[in-house]
Amino acid sequence: MTDVVTTVAVAMFAGAVRVSTPFLFVSLGECLTEKSGRINLGLEGTLVFGAMSAYAVSYLSGSPWVGVLAAGLAGSLFGALHGAICRLPKVSDIAIGIALMLFGTGFAFFLGKGFIQPTAPRLQAIDLGFLVSDPQLKVALQINPLFFIGLILAVVLWWGFANTRIGLVVRMTGDSAATARAMGVSVDGVRFWATTVGGFLAGVGGAFLSLFYPGSWNEGLSSGQGLMAVALVIFSRWNPLACVAAALLFGAAGALGPALQSVGISQGYHFFNAAPHILTLAIMIATSSSKRSLKGAPGELSITK
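Given the sequence above, the corresponding structure tokens read:
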């Protein structure tokens, strides 16, 4: 029994690190966007299009890191498009996000049909297995460098929001557009660039999916991770460091099904595979009261008005 528990725990640890990386990048991108006072529900489409772009460019160029850069640039274009449209009067950022989610997903499927069969160069993991002697932990400690980059970005965002002028301007724009305008800040400009950078991060999250885990391009790649990241940001109370913990939690939930299957528990496998979606629903229900769910929310978000 102890061996089974240990095996499941190690598998969930490995899965938490592996599965959490796309959640981490998308949630950090959405956290930055929402800090400026805008919601982007189109990050699911951005994630999928980034995954397709990364795989296609990696295959054509022979370099997975060029693919990662291409995914980020593709994501930034979607973010810039969202930001540009939302600058128009009487435009709903939520409606535009849903439209771009559908557009990004469909466009990725259309352009990516020719890249389903070819094998593209994949990102290589950093092997930290030399730190331990347990064979299972050795495998678990093969970690993709994008995970560490995501951790660094979370710290940088957290520090930047609290200690830099740019961070102050972003937070002020998100909390009170009138105050920002009185200080001579271009509210639309700040939100445009925040949405663009947020899209870049979401695109990089998509690159992880196609170039590392699961490491291929197909039309069912994302499984709604872009949408779940929005709930993750609310759960994290718009704190980049808390986004790391929440992403790991969602990643562990996503690894629950494969972890149980690895020890021979296959009954209810599909139910356990739905754990991230169930967790998302549970979190939204648990934080559904107006006082709790909006605690710490930027005042200019459409959900606060």
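The CA atoms of residues 40 and 65 lie 26 Å apart. Try to locate this feature in the token string yourself.
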